[in-house]
């Protein structure tokens, strides 16, 4: 500790200030902690990932990954002995608590077996239902009804409750891709929520009541891991500002690893433009995933593929002949064309009936919603008891 410049007492130069506020709560505390931990990991031979600053990678003698969230740390790798050595080295530098194999981390529950891993947030959902007094509500089959939300209806007398519940629902999209579009929709009314918006939130909670144990299943597989993405957009789907909603789903082999449902920033003049913008966002996410794979030394066996149901957008991604029709499109959306021409990814056609991203761009009828949900690696828990097979360790500082 040292006194800040200008506050040094000449009569007591070795004294320090008595802080009335905890040092942990100061603005510079997270940065100071990160720099301290980073220096310690660098001294142990780790390298920081260029794609994710919270990920540190050790390649020799064997692969070890350290993922940091403030003072919660996950240590994992194929060798349990090397992981234990890393934990011992960390314990010599910091007062840490080894919590053993990963079961619960930041609200995420992990169940493992010899056939794969299941990640869910059942406890978080149950706590949310109890907090909102919806634990006794009648379940429903879909998170959204056919009623379109707009800015009509009576204003809520206590909008803080609405904002609190919607904020909690946002955290659920970590393991529930089936909620992405519904949560994105109700988030658009945070400033002045109205009664129909709150009814939509209640319907999401009722849907959660009926799918309490659902989560993402990551099966073990020996087949080559291919990176496949589905991209789609609902052109002018918003009834009051006519902006489109774009989305994507990215699969690594049979596992869903990334997804998004987001309203586009500007109005698209055609369905081709809306789809093309969504393709560009999907390509950006794929590029980031490929960079992350490169940091950990993982190589894909073939080029990533993006599946789109718009033929014109696919042609535009690889052929600049439609320049006259796309003068108004921002230059950064042509990023995907550069990737295609450089043969870093391919764009292929998929029929609308097989387009998985419909679940992220619009409200769907029950049969269509349930069909697409079954394609997203989303299922009820396959375990009755928690397994503990792989070496994944969580460390608490």
CATH homology superfamily name of the largest domain: Ribonuclease H-like superfamily/Ribonuclease H
Taking Cα atoms only, what radius of gyration do you get, to the nearest Å?
Answer: 24 Å
- Compute the number of helices: 11
The structural domain count equals 3
Helical/strand content category? alpha+beta
Q: Could you name the CATH class of the largest domain?
A: Alpha Beta
Percent of residues in helices: 25-40%
Number of strands: 16
Question: Looking at the structure, what is the overall shape?
Answer: globular
Strand order of the largest sheet: 1-2-3-4-16-5
Q: What is the N-to-C order of secondary-structure elements (H for helix, E for strand)?
A: HEEEEHEEEEHHHHEEEEHEHHEHHEE
First CA to last CA: what distance?
Answer: 21 Å
Low-confidence stretches: 385-394
Notes on the structure:
There is one protein chain. The chain contains eleven helices and 16 strands. Helix 4 (159-172) runs antiparallel to helix 5 and helix 7 crosses helix 8 (311-318). The two termini are 21 Å apart. The protein has 397 residues and is of the alpha+beta class. The model is unreliable at 385-394 (pLDDT under 50). Helices cover 33% and strands 21% of the residues. It has three domains: 23-95; 120-210, no CATH class; 222-380, Nucleotidyltransferase, domain 5. The strands form three sheets. It has a six-stranded antiparallel sheet with strand order 1-2-3-4-16-5, covered by helices on one side. Strands 6-7-8-9-15 form a five-stranded antiparallel sheet. The chain is globular and about 70 Å long. It has helices at residues 29-43, 80-93, 122-131, 159-172, 180-187, 195-210, 271-296, 311-318, 335-341, 358-361, 366-374, and strands at residues 47-48, 55-58, 64-69, 72-76, 97-101, 104-105, 108-113, 116-120, 214-219, 227-234, 245-252, 255-263, 305-308, 346-349, 378-380, 392-396. The longest helix has 26 residues, at 271-296.
